[in-house]
Structure formats: structure tokens, C-alpha cells
Amino acid sequence: QLAGLAVIAFGLWLRFGGVMADFASDKKSPEYFFMGLYVLVGAGALMTTVGFFGCCGAARESQCLIGAFFACLLVIFAAEVTAGVFAFIGKKVAIQEAQKIYEDIYDDYMKNPGGKVNSTIYRYHLALQCCGKDNMEQQTGLPCPENIQKASNCLVEIQNVIDANLHLVGIVGIAIAGITIFGMIFSMVLCCAIRNTRDTI
């Protein structure tokens, strides 16, 4: 249950907090770009629910509930492994999609510097601590944060941010997968212990 709550909190933080939230808040951002995070939150909710039923099964010494708990953990484990594989395979596509979002906003700003996109591109620059698509963009009058000492390429920063977040997801996924394996082992041990006790009686 604690692991499930941790996964939910982590998924919500990635979706609504930090730099990734700036991509989500833009209308150009496609929903499928964050589908992996929705799956992560859903898996966390499922783990919390399964953990509750596992506790009930252990308290009642019910082989049926503990067996169902094991089956659910097996499904969650398989889903985690599958999601992890797809996350790393789709990393390049995710980076290209995020960079395209920024390039579209950049092009809109260059066409109409005084329009609504002005605040949007500034929000991106502030979150990523970058300015434009190359190191000389500050000379073109882009809205860049004043505290940037050296302007960096926003396309490179987008790649760095997604790489860092995927590494976090990978670490959390491995940790949760380990907990899931231990949960399956202990559930089988408990189920066998209950069966042996009943056979003895």
C-alpha cells in the first residue's frame, strides 16, 4: 500500500509539478505524451487497492484472497516491466515531440512577438533555464529570464530534462518491481503456511 501511494505521488508530481508541467499546460501538448504518467498513477492506485485486499487475506488467513493477491501482483509486475521497456524505447519519440512543441511556440513568437505566446515562451525559458534554439538567441529580443548567466539551447535542455525524468521513472520502477517480487514470494510462503496449518489440524 505504501509503495502504491509513493507511485501515485511520484506520477502526480511528474505530471503537475516541475518542468514537465509546463509542457502539459500548453494547448499544443498532446495528451498521449503523458500517457505513461497516467499509467503510472493508475498502477499506483491498483497497487494500493491490491495491498488492502492482501492485508485482508492475511488477517483472515484466506488462501483465496492471498492467491488473488499473488495473481494481481504478477499482473502489476508484468505491466511495470512492459511500461519500462516502452518508456525507454519511446524516449527518442518523446524528446522529438517535446522539441517540436517548443519549435512551434518559437515560430509563433517570431511571427507575432507581442502576442499571447509571449508569456508561454517565457514560461518555457524560465522552467528550462534556456533561451531560444541556439546560444545567440538573446540578441533577437526573445523574452528570457534575467538570471540566466549563459543562454543555453532550449532543444538541448528539453532532451536533458526528459532524460533525467526517465531515469527517475526507471529507478522508481526497479524499486517497485523489487517490492512486487518480494510481495509475491511472501504471499506464496504465507499461503503455503496456511495450507500446512490446516492440513495439520
Topology:
Layout: H1 2-16, H2 20-25, H3 35-60, H4 63-89, H5 91-111, H6 117-128, H7 154-200
Helix pairs in contact: 1-3, 3-4, 4-7, 5-6, 5-7
Could you please describe the fold and organization of this structure?
The chain has 201 residues and is mainly α. The chain folds into 2 domains: 60 residues; 124 residues, no CATH class. 77% of the residues lie in helices and 0% in strands. It contains 7 helices and no strands. The protein starts with a helix and ends with a helix.
Task: Describe what is shown at a glance.
The protein has 201 residues and is an all-alpha fold. The chain is 77% helix and 0% strand.
Keywords:
mainly alpha, 2 domains, rod-shaped, transmembrane helix, transmembrane, Tetraspanin_EC2_sf, Tetraspanin_animals, Tetraspanin
Strand proportion, as a percent range, falls in under 5%
Label the overall shape.
rod-shaped
Radius of gyration: 23 Å
The residue-averaged pLDDT reads: 75
Given as residue ranges, the uncertain stretches (5+ residues, pLDDT < 50) are none
Strand and helix order: HHHHHHH
> Count of helices?
7
Based on DSSP secondary structure assignment, what is the total number of beta strands? 0
Specify the biggest β-sheet: none
Helix-strand makeup class: mainly alpha
Helical residue percent?
A: over 70%
Tell me the domain tally: 2
Distance between the termini: 32 Å
Subcellular location: Membrane
InterPro entries: Tetraspanin/Peripherin, Tetraspanin_animals, Tetraspanin_EC2_sf
Membrane topology: Multi-pass membrane protein
Pfam families: Tetraspanin (PF00335)
